[in-house]
């Protein structure tokens, strides 16, 4: 493990994936600092609940100030990615080895209604991370991209070596922009960057705007499930622990460039510079109706359904080619949907104190 016992910054530390990654890093004895702006895109209490499990007392949170966790190798500060002054201050003071940028304005559909929020957080905020990373000599910047960058591409499975020049939402466009910006910094400043295209991540402590929470809430409260494209959709559902294991192994691997990269036939997923893109998915697309059926079975109740046309900014199917990642970290995400949804439903019923 090349980066054992290093200091890591995790942005979006109160978020769904950030929370689970930090839990893993804490028990692995890394020194971790996390930041998050705790915005109100969804219930802040859910974010504070995650932080509580990481040993952070919500009553001690002060804007732009690091506070200690009950775990002696973890600290947290409420800072926005857009806050250049305080981003640079924390980089300067803490001298990180690795940055794991999981902070972003999430959500495909919300990006159609509020595009500026995505440009502010996902582009301007990411630029601050890039600038601080090169100025303060970060060894490796790992950042969240998204399967949504594949856009109009229908060549399945999606490969990091495919073109991603036709996004269909502002969210996807900002994530594509992140990948392009990272490549520039890899070239100009020899900054090692790895982009991770996540595929439909789900599990306990997930976001309320994503389908497991939306559907569970509708089923249990006799509300209508809104099913888009008349249910004719597939998703490569990826359990959060598989995401965490993949990220952990990436952190502990030495970066490798593609010395065979050919400018006459440029590979979008690699470079002659220290730049790499990976998919992280389960590589097993599941039909939307099968997914809902599994959730209904686990909740012991059939939901009411309304079938609707495809929504703006959405794509019909996702399917990840993860061979590059598997070869590099010697791990393949493998949690079955039924098992993963089982863990989600147990948490959901307990968190919301629901008796079936």
List the helices and strands and how they pair.
Elements: E1 7-11, H1 16-27, E2 31-36, H2 44-53, E3 67-68, E4 74-78, H3 84-94, E5 98-101, H4 108-113, H5 115-135, E6 140-146, H6 170-189, E7 193-198, E8 201-202, H7 211-220, E9 224-228, E10 234-235, E11 238-239, H8 240-251, E12 275-280, E13 286-287, H9 288-299, E14 304-308, H10 323-329, H11 337-351
Parallel strand pairs: 1-2, 1-5, 2-4, 5-6, 6-7, 7-12, 8-11, 9-14
Antiparallel strand pairs: 3-4, 10-13
Helix pairs in contact: 1-8, 3-5, 5-6, 7-9, 9-11
Give descriptors for this structure.
single chain; alpha/beta; Rossmann fold; 8-stranded mixed beta sheet; two-stranded parallel sheet; globular
Quick structural summary:
With 356 residues, this protein is an alpha/beta fold. The protein has helices at residues 16-27, 44-53, 84-94, 108-113, 115-135, 170-189, 211-220, 240-251, 288-299, 323-329, 337-351; strands at 7-11, 31-36, 67-68, 74-78, 98-101, 140-146, 193-198, 201-202, 224-228, 234-235, 238-239, 275-280, 286-287, 304-308.
Shape: globular
CATH superfamily: NAD(P)-binding Rossmann-like Domain
Main sheet overview: 8 strands, mixed
CATH architecture: 3-Layer(aba) Sandwich
C-alpha Rg, in Å? Answer: 20 Å
Overall pLDDT confidence: 93
Strand/helix succession: EHEHEEHEHHEHEEHEEEHEEHEHH
Question: N-to-C terminal Cα separation, in Å?
Answer: 45 Å
Strand content: 15-25%
Task: Extract low-pLDDT stretches.
Answer: none
CATH topology: Rossmann fold
Total beta strand runs? 14
> What's the structural domain tally?
1
Q: Please state the structural category.
A: alpha/beta
Helix content: 25-40%
